[in-house]
């Protein structure tokens, strides 16, 4: 039995993060899912969230991801999303500014898909950046 999983976080712009992990936690449309080594094959739709990866060397990597898919098979985990960014690369002040701008648009009645996506992505970035700053 394997003692780790291979993780790839893939965004439209390329691979955001990859490495070996002891566990992965991500939010799907059904709720939070934890993946450990030797997990059964699994495919689910993700929602924007702060995904957490516990690496084999004990580091906790936090990534902001947009909606997309998680695929698990043969001790390989792929998070596939239009947008993905490692939390320590996110400027919290900028992310909070983006979230406030998206909230203003929503409060003004702009409920189109682009505004909703902007809001959900900004929420994921703020959460990821805050989680990363808590562990620093």
What does this structure look like?
This protein is an alpha+beta fold and about 140 residues long. The chain has two domains: about 5-85, F0F1 ATP synthase delta/epsilon subunit, N-terminal (ATP Synthase, domain 1); about 90-135, no CATH class. The chain has two helices and nine strands. It has helices at about 90-105, 115-135, and strands at about 5-10, 15-30, 30-35, 40-45, 50-55, 60-65, 70-75, 75-80, 85. Strands 1, 2, 3, 4, 5, 6, 7, 8 and 9 form a nine-stranded mixed β-sheet that branches. Strand 5 (about 50-55) and strand 6 (about 60-65) form a beta hairpin. The longest helix has 23 residues, at about 115-135. The radius of gyration is 15 Å and the shape is globular. The chain starts with a strand and ends with a helix.
CATH fold-level topology of the largest domain: ATP Synthase, domain 1
The SSE string, one letter per element, is EEEEEEEEEHH
> What is the second-level CATH architecture of the largest domain?
Sandwich
What is the share of helical residues?
25-40%
Helix/strand-derived category reads alpha+beta
CATH class of the largest domain: Mainly Beta
**Count of alpha and pi helical runs:** 2
Shape: globular
Which percent band covers the strand fraction? 35-45%
Main beta-sheet strand count, sense and barrel state:
9 strands, mixed
Q: How many DSSP E strands?
A: 9
Distance between the termini: 33 Å
Low-pLDDT segments, ≥5 res: none
